C-alpha cells in the first residue's frame, strides 16, 4: 500500500492533561446565522424577545442547513448584519444574558422510532461537523448509497488542539454509546476509530472497552500531518480512495468526528441541543492554556480574558489549529459551533518571500502528490489547461507545502486562488 | 490594542530557509575543499577564494544593475563559486577563474532570471565555457603533493587519460595507472575539488542525511555508469572513481534549479547522466564526459518533468499531456 506524504509537526498538545473547565456566563452572546456549511439560517426572533436556553433562534427551510439554538437565557438585543472570518455577510442575533440560564420547555429527549426520525432529530439538535468544517451531520448520516464502514475521526492532527482528545478521555462512554447508536440506526457493519499515535491513552482506553466487540476496531494513525483530512483518514483506515468528484459515501464510508458522535448520544438522552462546546485555548499569548466549555456565541475576548491572555499584546488570533485555522480580525467575534481551538499569539514572523529554488519540498510533502511549485507557475501565467492537468482542484488546503517552503512562498494560498480561475462545470 | 494580523493559513512556523540550505551545501563541500588543499596545496584555497569572491561580486553587481533585490545573502553565489573552483585545475590563472565566475553568475544565472530560474547549472556551464575557450590552461594538471617539493610544476595526465594509454606511453610519461585507493582518496591529478571521491561522498551523505538532497539522482547516475562499464567489460570501479563523477553526481546532478523536482524525474535524470557520461568517455574524443552529460540532461529537465508528473491521489481522468 502506497503511503501518503505528509509532514511531521511539533504536537504542542500542551493542554492534553487539562480537564475541561466551564467558562463563566458571558454578558452578551452573538449568533451568526451561518456557522455551518450550507444555507444560512433566518433569525426566528426579533429585538426585545425573551429567549431561554435551548430555544431555537434561527432555522432554514433548506434541508442542507442546521438550526441554531440560544446558549443562554436573556433578551434579544439586536438582529444585525455580521461579517464572518471568510468575509461573507450573514445576519446575526445578539442576546443579552439575564444570568438565570432558564431552560427552554422545548428541551425533551427526541422520540426516535426509525432512521428518518433519527435523521430529523440530528438536524433538530443543531449539530454540524465539530472538527472544523461544519458539514451538516444529518446530511452526512443519510446518504443515498449503502454504507458499510463508519470511521470515527479522532485523529486531531493539528498542533495544540486537544478538545477531541479531552472528549475521548472525559466522555469515553458517550463516544462508545454514540457509536453503538449509529451502528444500529444505520446498519453499519464495521466501525473504525482512527486515532493518531500521539494519543496513546485514548487508543488504550478504546482498545480495552471495545475488545469484545468485533465490529469496532481501533486504527492507530501515524503522527504525520494531515491524518485527520477526510480522504487521508479513509485511505489510511480502509485503503479505499475517494476519487475526484465523488464523496466518501460513494465507496460506502462515512467519516464523523469523535466529538460529534458523543454529542449525538447525549442529545438522544437529554434533548439538549448543541449550544456548548469544548474549545482548546492556547498559544504563546495565553498565560493559562485551558480546555474550556464555552457557550456558542461567546465573544472571543471573554475566553481570552478567562485564560489570562495578553490582550494588549495580541498579534494573531486563530480559530482552529495553526495549519488550517483562520485568522480572526476582531476579538469581539464569537466562538462558533465549529471552533475547536482558539489560539492567540503575541508575535507574527513576517518572513520575506524569496524566489522559488525548485527544491521540490512542496511536491514531496503533498499528501495528494500535487506539485505546488508547478501550480504556482501555471497560475502566474493563467494557464488553465495546465492547472487542470496539475489537478489543483483536488488541493485540500492542508498547508503542508507552504509550511515546508524554504522561500516562504504562500503555495497553499496560491492553490486556492488557482481554483477560483478554473472554469466551473 | 494593536490591530490583529490576518494572513492565510498555515500559521505554524518552520525555520527552514534558502540560506540555511545553501549553508548546508557549503558545509558539505568542506571535506572536498580540505582534500583539495592537502593534495594541491594552498593555491587550491586561493583559487576557491577567488571564485567565491568574484561570484558574490558578480551576483551583487548584476542585481544592482537590474535594480532587483540584493540576493547575496542567500549564499547561492557562494555555492556556485565553490563548485566552479572545484571544477578548475589548481594551476588555472586567476583571471580565468574570475571570468568563469562571471560567466556562471551573470550569464548563466542572472540573465535567465536569477536563483531557481536558470536552466543550466551555472558552475558547470562556466567550466565548459572555460574548457572550450582556454583548452591548455584548463587541462594543465599537476601531481598531488607536488606543491611541497618547491620544484617547477610538472604537468601530468588525469586518470581517465592514463587508462587509455599503452604501457610504453605510460613509461614515457613516468606515471602509473593509479590504484583504487589513491583514486578513492583523491591522490591523483585532476580538478582541485573533484579528485577525492571519499571527501565528496562524505559531503553527499551529509546532504542526504540533512534531507537537503534526494539520493535518487546520484545513486542512479553512479549506478548506471558502473553498470554500463561492467557490461562493456571495462573496470567499473575505476570508471566511477576517476574523473568528476562524484562531484557531478552529488553536487551538480542534485542542483535544485536545473534538475527535475519529482523523485521519478530525478531517477530518469540520473540514469540519463550515467548513459551520456559513459558514451562520451568511451565513444567520443573527450576523456571526460560528466560535465556535458549533466548539461545535456539539464536541457532535458523540463521534458522529463512533464512526463514524470506523479499520479495525483484520487484523480479521475488521465493527465492530458501537452
Task: Write a structural description.
The complex is a heterodimer of chains A (425) and B (322). Chain A is α/β, with parallel strands linked by helices and 425 residues long. Among the domains of chain A are: 115-270, Rossmann fold (3-Layer(aba) Sandwich), CATH 3.40.50; 361-421, no CATH class. Chain A has 13 helices and 17 strands. In chain A, the strands form four sheets. A six-stranded mixed β-sheet of chain A has the order 1-14-13-17-15-16, sandwiched between helices. A four-stranded antiparallel β-sheet of chain A has the order 2-8-7-4, with no helix packed on it. Chain A is globular, with a radius of gyration of 21 Å. The mean pLDDT of chain A is 94. Chain B is mainly alpha-helical and 322 residues long. Chain B has one domain (18-306): Ammonium transporter fold, CATH 1.10.3430. In chain B, 57% of the residues lie in helices and 1% in strands. A two-stranded antiparallel ribbon of chain B has the order 1-2. Chain B starts with 17 loop residues before the first helix and ends in a 15-residue tail after the last helix. In chain B, 50% of the residues are buried. The model of chain B has no long low-confidence stretch (mean pLDDT 91). The interface between A and B is large, with 69 and 44 residues.
Q: Which range does the strand content of chain B fall in?
A: under 5%
**What is the alpha-carbon Rg of chain B in Å?**
21 Å
As residue ranges, the low-confidence spans of chain B are none
Q: What do the pLDDT scores of chain A average to? A: 94
Give the low-confidence spans of chain A.
Answer: none
Oligomeric form: heterodimer
Q: Main sheet of chain B: which strands, in order across?
A: 1-2
CATH class of chain B: Mainly Alpha
Number of distinct helices of chain B: 14
CATH architecture of chain B: Orthogonal Bundle
Strand content of chain A is 15-25%
Gyration radius from CA atoms of chain A, angstroms:
21 Å
